[in-house]
Amino acid sequence: MSAVMMDGRAVAKVWKEKIAKQTESLISKGITPHLAVVLVGENPASQVYVRNKENACIKAGIRSTVIRLDEGCTQQALEDVVRSLNRDASVHGILVQLPLPEHLNESRVLALIDPDKDVDGFHAMNSGRLMNGQPRFVPCTPLGVMKLLEAYDIPVAGKHAVIIGRSNIVGKPMAMLLLAKDATVTICHSKTQNLPDIARQADILVAAVGRPGFVTADMVKPGATVIDVGINRVDGQIVGDVAPEVAQTAGYLTPVPGGVGQMTIAMLLANTLDAAE
Ligand code: NAD
User: Fold this and answer.
1) Probe target for ligand 1 pocket from 188, 231, 237, 260, with the most ligand atoms within 8 Å of CB
2) Is 193 close to ligand 1, i.e. is its CB under 6 Å away?
3) What is the pLDDT of residues 197-245, one digit of tens each?
4) For residue range 106-164, what is the model confidence (pLDDT) as tens digits?
5) Residue 225 forms beta bridges with which residues?
6) What are the structural domains of the chain?
7) How far does the centroid of ligand 1 lie from the alpha carbon of residue 182, in Å?
């Protein structure tokens, strides 16, 4: 039996159309939602992500400004840009594209973003709110995963969700969101022992590792829902963290590309609209 492919592109399209309508109505009231993206350096993947975000904003009627800084820019210069965006009343959402070049202090920059404009949801105020069960801005990728589960009516309450990866961007907020929906949550990471045994217990398995083909069929319970967050470049192709053979074992599976990545962008638009509202 072959898994049902969860079509992130189709679900994201519905979200984007809804957001475009709401944006139009906000603009008619004199408010144009405005996302400012700060991009430091020439990282090719970051350039692509920023271009995709920019295009998605334009299509939805959301104003997008990209501030490009040189690879060698100083911490002070970057912080000055963030401060000026915080002060700019026409800007509703601020996103600093990660990763930053090595010499820059990422956590100091993220802490500087006005929490009310933090559409990526990486500020400690927003992660704390998520942890307390009073979410404001939720990180776009795990939020997109939840919306995809909802769109496919995948039951979450009481189910065992296993997340592989414990980053602040994906793994940890993913765990909080699943917990808030009454899943029993296990987080695995690079030091986890017997990871395949734990993964095999999952009703919902989320892979956010950054290693192509990390999740193999023997790690998946037959019929489980497998969410592939990974984005890896192999020989010029984009592949996820889940081996293709898993499609024969899982009940539901997100493709890469065309799965979670599409939802991430839709949720960024949703958060920006929310900030403007
Ligand atoms: P990260 O590097 O910050 O975290 C990776 C996690 O994987 C770590 O917590 C680490 O403990 C765990 N890990 C590494 N090796 C492991 C191993 N051998 N066994 C078990 N766990 C291991 O990465 P991230 O930012 O969380 O991103 C993860 C992946 O998701 C990457 O491929 C990234 O490109 C992708 N990503 C996709 C989207 C999207 O929109 N689809 C968004 C963000 C990240």
Assistant:
1) 231
2) no
3) 999 999 999 999 999 999 999 999 999 999 999 999 999 999 999 999 9
4) 999 999 999 999 999 999 999 999 999 999 999 999 999 999 999 999 999 999 999 99
5) 204, 252
6) 30-115 (3.40.50.10860), 140-261 (3.40.50.720)
7) 24
- Region for residue 201 given its phi and psi (left: phi exceeds 0; alpha: psi -120 to 50; beta: otherwise): alpha
> What's the pTM value of the predicted model, to 2 decimals?
0.98
Q: Which residue out of 97, 118, 159, 203 is catalytically annotated?
A: 97
Cα distance between residue 48 and residue 241, in whole Å? 20
CA separation for the pair 36, 148 (Å, rounded): 26
How far from 87 is each of 25, 93, 162, 248, CA to CA, in Å?
25, 12, 41, 52
- CA-to-CA dists, residue 93 to 98, 102, 143, 276, angstroms: 16, 25, 17, 8
Burial of 88 (0-12, 13-18, 19+ CB in 10 A): middle
Q: Which amino acid is at 175?
A: A
For residue 120, indicate whether it is catalytic: yes
Residue 86 near residue 94 (C-beta atoms within 8 A): yes
Question: What is the pLDDT at residue 233?
Answer: 94
Asked if residues 23 and 60 have their Cβ atoms less than 8 Å apart, the reply is yes
Q: Give per-residue pLDDT as tens, 19-73.
A: 999 999 999 999 999 999 999 999 999 999 999 999 999 999 999 999 999 999 9
Structure-block tokens of residue 272: 């920006």
HEC-encoded secondary structure of 193-247:
CCHHHHHCCCCEEEECCCCCCCECHHHCCCCCEEEECCCEEECCEEECCECHHHH
pLDDT at 1 over 80: no
Q: How many Cα neighbours within 13 Å face the side chain of 52?
A: 14
Structure tokens at 144: 């997109």
